[in-house]
Amino acid sequence: MEAPFGVRFIVKTTINDIGEFGLIDRIARVLPTSPSVVEGIGDDCAVLRVHDRLLLVSCDMAIEDIDFRKTWMGPDEIGWKVTAASLSDIAAMGGAPLFGLIGLACPGETEAHYIEEVFRGISNAMSRFGAVVVGGDTSRSHGPLALDVTVIGTTTGSRYLRRGGAQLGDLLAVSGFLGQSSAGLHAFEHGKQHSAFRISHCHPRPRIAEGQWLCRSYAVHAAIDISDGLLQDAAHLADASQLGVNIQTELLPVSEPLAQYCSENGLNPLDFVLAGGEDFELAFSLSPKEAEQTLHRFHHEFRTPVTIIGEFTDRWAGVRIDEKETPLRGFEHFRK
Ligand SMILES: [Mg+2]
């Protein structure tokens, strides 16, 4: 824009303007890569070649009053949840977690026992899925508690699952039930008690064994964990695969507790299922020919519900609901 007398307006772009994913794009452009980097920024984990092994590395950060409230969750639950989020990214690639590194910042007035309990939760989650904490760093914060969990893992077979592997005509499937973690958040915000949603929100279980199983099945072509909500994460699968995806609402699995909670409170369960994050279930693409048999075997192995909810297409980019564009979106930091 030209101003009078040739003065240029300089428009400063803030992070709120570009959102979390715009910020990640800009950061990625600043960073060089290396031949050892098999997959860099843009998937659930980085995939790194070290001699003849492939390492999977991911980190997740949580900040008090942004990602969790101390009044809603115990310190061990905070530790478990942030660790589960990081482990879930290893699950999304079909890998096995091995080691954890923890970054912690908190005010000096924090009770030492509280931090011990945070680390008890971290350690419980790590050891439950075969990993161990090997180090980290601590710093002082003037305000909120900040926790960063890095997980280092490895591939478990001859391949790993990427976001970008979906093929035209593949079906989209999800493990488990969605929306219960965000229903737990809704219950907290409205002063309600709900034990099942509390577990979904505070004690999510990353699908490590399920991810490894899917990775061994060649009918499965791409996967992501649902951390930001089904819509957002399905869009990540579609974008990375240079396809579009259609989600059929009539196919979406709605758990009995979620249906009941929504009917009692005048809410639409699909809002939670489509846009609620932090379920840490897996969304994956698979070949339509082998889908029925694969999902039958998956259910037989894990007794976890698994549901076909849509299909990949080249008729549009991004995600559509019942073939229509949607104003609903998942969670994104910085977007107002
Ligand atoms: Mg992820």
Molecular structure report:
- The protein is α+β, with helices and mostly antiparallel strands.
- The strands form two sheets. Strands 1-2-3-6-4-5 form a six-stranded mixed beta sheet. A six-stranded mixed beta sheet has the order 8-10-7-11-9-12, sandwiched between helices.
- The mean pLDDT is 94.
- Magnesium ion binds next to helix 2 and strand 8.
Q: Give the DSSP E fraction (strand runs of 2 or more residues).
A: 15-25%
H and E order = HEEEHEHEEEHHHEHEHHEHEE
CATH superfamily of the largest domain, please?
PurM-like C-terminal domain
Strand order of the largest sheet: 1-2-3-6-4-5
Output the number of helix runs: 10
Could you name the ranges where pLDDT drops below 50 across 5 or more consecutive residues? none
Mean pLDDT: 94
Q: Tell me the CATH topology of the largest domain.
A: Phosphoribosyl-aminoimidazole Synthetase, Chain A, domain 2
Number of strands: 12
Q: Topology, pairings included?
A:
Elements: H1 15-30, E1 37-39, E2 46-50, E3 53-63, H2 75-92, E4 95-106, H3 112-128, E5 132-140, E6 146-155, E7 171-175, H4 180-189, H5 195-202, H6 208-216, E8 220-225, H7 230-240, E9 244-247, H8 256-265, H9 269-275, E10 282-286, H10 288-302, E11 306-313, E12 318-321
Parallel strand pairs: 4-5, 9-12
Antiparallel strand pairs: 1-2, 2-3, 3-6, 4-6, 7-10, 7-11, 8-10, 9-11
Helix pairs in contact: 2-3, 2-6, 4-5
The structure holds magnesium ion.
Magnesium ion binds at residues 44, 89, 92, 224-225, 227.
